[in-house]
Amino acid sequence: MEHGAERPIWRQGATAGGHRPSRPRAARKNPFRRFRALAAVRRPSFGPEPAIRDIDSAMRHSAPDSRDVAPEGARLIDTLVALWPFIWPADRADLKRRVAWALVLLLGAKLATIVVPFTFKWATDALSAPASSTAATLGWVLAAPVALTAAYGGTRILMALLTQVRDGVFAKVAMHAVRRLAIRTFRHMHELSLRFHLERKTGGLTRVLERGRNGIEIIVRMVLLQAVPTVIELALIVGVLLYQFDWRYVVVVLATVAVYMIYTYYATEWRIAIRRQMNDSDTEANTKAIDSLLNYETVKYFSAERREAARYDRSMERYEDASVKTYTSLAVLNAGQAAIFTVGLTVAMAMCAVGVRRGTQSIGDFVMINAMMIQLYQPLNFMGMVYREIKQAVIDIETMFGILRRPPEIADAPGAPPLAVPAGTIRFENVQFAYEPDRPILQGISFEVPAGRTVAIVGPSGAGKSTISRLLFRFYDVTGGRITIDGQDIRTVSQASLRDAIGMVPQDTVLFNDTIRYNIRYGRWEATDAEVEEAARLAQIDGFIRAAPKGYETEVGERGLKLSGGEKQRVAIARTILKGPPILLLDEATSALDSHTEKEIQDALERVSENRTSLVIAHRLSTIVGADEIIVLDQGQIAERGTHAELLEQDGLYAGMWNRQREAEQAREKLAEVGDSPVAPNRNPPPGLSDDETERSADRADRIEPVD
């Protein structure tokens, strides 16, 4: 078929020459005007994030640079300073009261803890007192031990009760801090540039978020519920020993504590490097598992189950080795701590035994020093555990804090106004761009998409077509020139308003693992069910949805894999219709579809693009025959421009691409006829086509350049 005789799919009503008769923009009927009007209403805000005054400055001081991973010697104090605004939030008086009450309960529990050894001593002394013959004395000898034993039990119950109430009161503070930091990190990940996400693996990022969240919970709870109580209890015990015994016992206790803490510090520092290796191997294994499962079909296509299992097993083997080292080092640490404390306990009890033999101390004192030292061992043991857990938590959250410290590559200018789109004219003015400084992608691109018109961008793979769409969405900033919409440089307006004004139908539509209704409503979240269904009807997918057993509540699966390519594209179109944007960007929206599905999708795209400014990134040239202007890119520059008919007359790059695609399509049709014929098993060429011609045509079909 001659190029002028084909009725264009992209824009119905083209003339034989490929031109479309112009008519005033106002004369075109827009069946989606009410969607656009509704979309123009300001979307509801979820409210500003609670004020956090010190977190940014604290994080800037917690590492010397803005890399994602903090240095090996990430300091604990900087982490605690960064966390303090979340523990003591300036905008939450109720949480401050909870912290205060938790500290009061903490002090009460520790005072009860100190009383316990005294009741033990008094009961022992009463039991070991010499017997008397008087009835009154005999009654006291019998009643006192019972009363003191009851006091001992009651004090321990009070201590446990106050501790549990304290934990319950503080739980709200701890989990609120975890939640705020997690959502802050999650939001910041979305604020970071496309470059950041293309350089990272999704499984690794989610693992960083998960471990960071757990690490925050450990630090918040350990500091106020373990470290502070341990310090208070240790101070009280030392004071009691100094009052009840003498300075020699204090020296023994302080020496034991000093040696214990020094050993714990160096052993924990040794374990940190081992823990880092375990975390790295855990992240690697998790990333490989997610990557393999997301590519389930590809694995099946190549029968690669054993190979994928082997890759995962190698990662798990490294994780196993690191985990064994971690547990072994923990055993060494615990054994050393127990030995140090046992030596201190033995020395203190030997000193007290000598005092009992000399008559300077009682049996109750001997029991009390044992109880005191055992009482001291608990906070000492917790202190070692707290230090280990906090240091390990710092490792777990250092990458999370590194992400928070990383400034967004693309950020709104201070006080950036929203984009105003009275018409929707797009202009690229001498635009230059490079992903890497030594590899330019666009070199001085200039063109205009008039309001309500359609401009198509075509070209070979690597010419920079998809880069144009990324620049228009401001996923990257241009390195030279500027992009304007209705005269406004897109770098000077807010990113949210810019992206609200553009509707995107991509080549590879990725859906959320939720219902069809959820995925369509994503275009405008406040839309009613009736509006969602109307958008689906206009996208020609309503009938398919209603035929499903669960209708609009049908789950689409991971990345929408339960739907076909055409069905996913229709959902994307319905989502764009519901959004109602004044500007439409189609990034090779039908290049991966068969001809029949492509025609149906093009009909839906024709409707959604009516009366809108449309920029089309095209691979199949037959879909953009009716565009108002076609721009041909080659090696980052505009090689040709004009209408379809004008470009064919020039007999240049576009004409060559058109002819190759037409020949490839004809070759596919003839090969399909061969497959349907009775002699298909022999693979004989159809009449009129030689073997060489068949081979060349098929080869040309295979060499059609893919999208960039």
In short:
This protein is of the alpha/beta class and 708 residues long. It contains 21 helices and ten strands. Helix 18 links the parallel strand 7 and strand 8.
Please provide a written account of the structure.
Helix content is 61%, strand content 9%. With 708 residues, it is of the alpha/beta class. Among the domains are: 67-405, ABC transporter transmembrane region fold (Up-down Bundle); 512-580, P-loop containing nucleotide triphosphate hydrolases (Rossmann fold); 661-702, no CATH class. The strands form 2 sheets. It has a 6-stranded mixed β-sheet with strand order 6-7-8-3-9-10. It has a 4-stranded antiparallel β-sheet with strand order 2-1-4-5, with helices on one face. Helix 18 (595-609) links the parallel strand 7 (583-587) and strand 8. Helix 4 (93-128) packs across helix 7 (202-244).
Keywords:
single chain, 708 residues, alpha/beta, ABC transporter transmembrane region fold, Rossmann fold, 6-stranded mixed β-sheet, 4-stranded antiparallel β-sheet, 21 helices, 10 strands, 61% helix, elongated, disordered N terminus
Can you count the helices?
21
Shape: elongated
User: What is the name of the CATH topology of one domain?
Assistant: ABC transporter transmembrane region fold
What Rg, in angstroms, do the CA atoms define?
37 Å
- Contiguous low-pLDDT stretches (5 residues minimum) are 1-74, 133-138, 679-708
Q: Helix amount, in percent?
A: 55-70%
The CATH class name of one domain reads Mainly Alpha
Structural class: alpha/beta
The assigned CATH architecture of one domain is Up-down Bundle
